[in-house]
Each structure stands twice: as structure tokens, then as C-alpha cells.
Amino acid sequence: MSDKKQNEKCHVYLDGKAIGVVKSGARFADEIRKNRRTGLVSGEVNVAYMKKLNEVHINADRGRARRPYIIVEDGVSKLTPEIKEKIKSKEIDFNYLLRKGIIEYLDAEEEENVNAALTEDAIDDRTTHLEIDPAAMFGFTFSSSVFQEYNSVGRHPISSNFIKQSQGLYAINFNNRYDPRAYLLFYPQMPMVNSTTYRTLKLNRHPSGQNMIIALSTYFGYNMKDALVINRAAIDRGLGRSVFYRTYGDEERRYPGGQQDRFKVPPATTEGYLGEHAYAMLSEDGIIEPEMEIRENGVMIGKVSPPRFLEEQTSFGVGEEKSRDNSVTLRAGEEGTIDSVLVSETPGATKIVKVRVRNIKIPEVGDKFASRHGQKGVIALIVPPEDMPFTKDGVVPDILLNPLSLPSRMTFGHMLETLGAKAGALSGKQFDGTAFSGNGRDRVDNYGALLEQHGFDKFGDEFLYDGRTGKKFDSSIFTGIVYFNRLLHMVSTKLQVRSRGPVQILTHQPTEGKPRKGGLKFGEMERDALVGYGASLLLKDRMLEQSDKADIWICKDCGDVGYFDHIKNVPVCPADGTNNLERVEISYAFKLLLDEIKSLHILPRVRLHSE
After folding, report:
1. Burial annotation 547-585 (CB, 10 A radius, 16+ → b, else e)
2. Catalytic one among 226, 250, 367, 548?
3. How much is the pTM?
4. Does residue 513 surpass a pLDDT of 90?
5. Which domains does the chain possess?
6. Which residue in 354, 356, 355, 348 sits closest to 260, CA to CA?
7. Is there a catalytic annotation at residue 226?
8. How confident is the model over 87-103, as a mean pLDDT?
9. Which residues in 126-141 are b (16+ Cβ under 10 Å) and which e?
């Protein structure tokens, strides 16, 4: 820092507002820290001295992410062995450590002034704080995984995302809840290898995966890249089986003028009546019964609403009471069973109905699975058990994982878990896989010794036999157990198809998205591919015939867009009133462009060339 900068007075900011100046920002920040540790200043206050800016920032506002650190003074941790013993004997608690200035919470800004050590052995003269645990630098999701320090850093955010997307036992009272969407795994298990965070937060009460036997082996090319080959017998026994809940709801709303919605079976005179068959599953009160099978567009809640506009007066001057159908139907592309029905009242004393639909999801080709190390894959083949490879003991792997998927991604934690979980299953133990909690070489030796005690190879390799021929494979195959998650990405919830269907009002092009009965988008890059191949007829079919083909009339004289007069049975040009027009096939989006250009007071002309 320059001498000029040092001689300047240091500005102090409280929650972003300037409150004054001090001579030395560093000494001022240290003074606040001392007062905070003695209790004169609230422990909620954080202070940071920005050396480059020569500013002190004091933060005491809400919403800051803060972490606890052990305070280090004169190269010695304030969390002494005597205090640790008192904590173990429960003489003192965590709040006592905060009050006595042994532990303090720091926010992101104050962390800039900190020199923190991971372990007590790493403390030197410059150290100001000590991590409570080396794994404390990770968040909740990431810490619930194991052996992450052995994985490539690029896998870390990926594995965290997959843990969040996994299906499991999200709530014990799921039967009493009406969540908009919920995924529930039928047979969730505790992992054979877990972490301190997993045990501390008792995440075994909300398990989100299953221990699956895996073998690192190819299978006739079906598990190329990340694809998985899975055992049909394992699926039949419940591996990865889950249920998907979706809740539909509606209420009897009140409108100005005293009109109100009504739950009932809509009468045939209702506007938008769907036909007698559509309401066949409804009870007398217009609500479907539990345990009834329902398919897409099936009516679950019958409801009639007042018309959107005032009805016309009849010849006798009496308003005829009309109503329109406003029933709740099942989404397009879905089916299931009515799980439960709730009838209640809102705080505004209007009747409310919620219907929960249940759909069992059995793993099928295309469903996504992932380990806690970011090793994802979709099922490519479901193989009968008699065709799967097996060990000398008759154990058939649940999943065949491509061996090439591990070294390129450097997920060595995945391999360590495979070995540790296998040793744990044989010895009846659960192992700790918390990050930075042990040496990898020692772990491999410990797991290997346990495997050798039970007659297995110390590195987890086994000789497998071909299920089709019965012959023994030439090389040994790495086999073990990995905790796999079934993710919420399932083929049955994403499958969409259409031939004809609704179109957008503005562009006359097909709608987009599964809920709107739309098709898959044929975009610019797909168009470029067809142009590159010279497939002009296919390009015309996709982008004109099956999209927004429109017939319009173009004036041969002035080039303006005309119209067809059905009374006189002749085309008319609005610009010059002539009948000399030609019918042309174009994309409606082009006609829309011409109209938008006209709105800018520019008159576009279309020139026609005769053949």
C-alpha cells in the first residue's frame, strides 16, 4: 500500500452506510473483535478491514451466511484438551464456548481477514483461527457424501446436484401431506459407508438410495459411455422402485355480484360439456373416489363456474342462468390411481378439494441413476438374471458399470466406497468416509485385510462366469457395493409425442411443452443439419407442412397482401381494389412479419415471378 493511502483516514461502514472515519482501520477492527469475544459487543456483529480499499466494513444485518471457527491466540488453540473433556462429559455446551470467546461465527467478509488452519498440527505464528473439522468447509449436501477428497473437483458440484435430485423417504408423514410433487422410494437403505454429517444430522431417518452390487465390466457394448446394464431380478425384487405423487386442487371461488363456483357433476347444458363418459368416475358431489384408475384428461373434480361475460337477456326480459365447465382433469401424458381425497375449507370459508394421484414407477430403459460421486448413467439394457455374469458363490451383480467411466473422471472415491462397502457387508460394519478423516492407503489396507479374512481378494477383484455360456472370464473383475441414488429424471415423466394438436394463436406454429400437448422443437440447428444434407423435402415438411403453412393472396400489380371475398367469390387487393391476385403458400410467421412491418408504417411489397 502506498504511503499516501496509509496516511489517509480509514472510512467505517455499518451495513453499507458510512458512519465515520478512524486513524487505523486494522487496530479498530481488532478492538471490535476483542470486545466481541469478551461480550461487550454482540456475537452477531462481524467486522472486516479491507486493506486495499483502506475501509472497515461492519455487518450486523440479517441473511448473512456465517460459520463457526475456533479462535487461535499466540499460536495456541483456545479449545484446550480440558475443555474438550468437559464437552464430552456434557458439563458445558456449544453456547458456553461462544460466550467465553473460544468459538466465534465469521461471515464471508470477515473471513478475508482470517488465516485458518485445517488441523492443530498446521497452526503457526500467523494462524488466527482453526477449523472445527476439516470437512466443515463443505455444505450440508456435499458433507453427506463420502470420500470426496479423492474425487476430481469437477465432480463435486455434479455429485451435490445428484444427491439433491435423489428419490427417498423425504418425510415420514407423507401419507398426510399434499405436496404438489413427491417422489418416494419403496425400499430405501442406509449406506454402508457414511459420514460424520450423515450421522450427526441423523439422515438415516431420511434415506435416499440403495446399496447395489456393482461389477466394473462391459456387456456386449450395451453399457458404453455412462449407460448401465441392470439385473431384471433385482428390479423384480424392488431395486429402485418408487412411487410418484402429484396433487391437484381447486376451490369454490366467489365472484363480484354474488356468483360462485360449484363442485358438482356438470349438467349437459353447461358450456364446454365434455360428454357423459368424461364424468362417469365422479360421485354425486362431483369429486372422484379414492383407488380409482384414471388416465390422461380424466376428470377428477367436477366444477361449474359462472360465465365470463354477462348472459344475454331472453325475450321475456329474464336473464337465463348459464354456466361453463371448469373441471379439473389429469395432465396430458400421465396416468395413475387416486391415492386420497381431501375436502376442507379455506380461511375465507370457501370449500376446497385436493386430490392426490399415485403412480408406481418401476425402473425402465432410460431411467437415471447416480452414485454419490457424480457417476451418473441411464439404464440401457435390463438383462434376465440367467444371462448376467455371476461369481463362484452365485452372486449376480445388480449393475454392470463401464470400467472406462472411472479413470477419465478421476472418481477414486467411488472405487474406495466400492471396496469399503464390500468389506463392511462381509464384516457387518459401517465405515466412516468423512472427508479428510483418514489416509487413503491405510483405508485400502484395512478394507483389504477384512476382505482377505473372508476369503476374497484384498483389492475386491473376483472371477466371474458368463451367464450365457457358463465359461469363466479370462480376467478378474472389480466387484463391490456402491450406494446408488435413483434420480427424479424418469422416461415416463418426460415422454411426449404428438401428430396433430393445438397451435399458438399468434404464430400458428405447434405449441411447445408436454403439458400443452406440444411437440419437440425443431430449431435453427436442426434446420442447418437438414440444409447441410440437402434434404429439402424433409426441411419443407418439418418447417412448412407440419408447422405453420398458410395460403395467402398476393396482388400481382402492387405486391400487397390481399384477401378472398367469399360473397363475391373473388380475391380482392385492399390497396388498389383489383382482382388480379395470386394464391401463394408461405409460412404464417412470414405473414406475421409483414403485418408487424406494416405496424411500423412501412408497406412491404411481395414480387411474384412467373415460371
Report:
1. bbeeebbbbeebebbbeeeeeeeebbbeeeeeeebeeee
2. 226
3. 0.82
4. no
5. 3-137 (3.90.1070.20), 155-175+185-241+365-486 (2.40.270.10), 243-308+321-361 (2.40.50.150), 496-545 (3.90.1800.10), 549-599 (3.90.1800.10)
6. 348
7. yes
8. 90
9. ebebbbebbbbebeee
